[in-house]
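Late entry, evening session. Most of the bench is empty. Finally got around to the prediction I had been postponing all week. Sequence below, unchanged from the version circulated by S.P.
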Amino acid sequence: MDPRIARTRTLLQDALLSLARERDLDDISVADIADRATINRSTFYQHYADKDTLLADALDEQARQAGADLADPAMLHIDPLALLARYATHMAENAALYRRVLGDHGSPGATARLRRRIHALALTGVSSHRDDFDRIGLPLEIAAAGITGSLVGVLTTWLDMDPRPSPERAAAWAWTMLLPNDQPDGCTPEP
C-alpha cells in the first residue's frame, strides 16, 4: 500500500477511535473525524464510504496490534482459550470503546464484522469435528452460529460488569458455555 494512503487511513482511524472514546458514535460525524484527523471531508470519502467501515477497520487494526487479530489465519494455530483471553484482554484495554461499539446504539458494521470474524473461526473449529455434528444432525453453519452468538453475548455482558472480572475469567466463561464438560484450569463454578 502507498505510504501516503496508509498514513491517511491511520490518521482517520486514530481520529475516530479518539472521538469514540469521548462520546457516543451517533454524535460523531464525518466532519468531526476529518477535523480531528486534520484532513478535509473529500479525503475521508476517498478512503472510506462511511464511518462504520472506518470503525471496523480501526478496531481490526487495534486488535492486530494487540496480537488478537481474529482475521489472521495464524491465530488458528493458537490454543482457542488463549486466543479468547488475548481478545478479551484487548477488549478490556478498550472497554469504554467496545461498550459503545457493541451497545444498543453501537456500530452495526463493526459488530457485524466482529461476528463474521468469530463465525469464521468457529466454523473452522467445528469443521474439525464434522463427524460429531453429522451424527447429531447439526449443520456446521448452525453450530458455528451458536458459538458466535454465545461468544459475543458472553463478551458483551462481561464488558458491562462492574467490577469486571479478568479477561482470563471471561475467556473461561465463554469456553465453559461452549464446552460445559471441558472446563479449563481455573474455571470452577462460583457460588
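Two things to note before I forget:
The chain is about 70% helix and 0% strand.
The CA atoms of residues 5 and 37 lie 13 Å apart.
Will write this up properly tomorrow.
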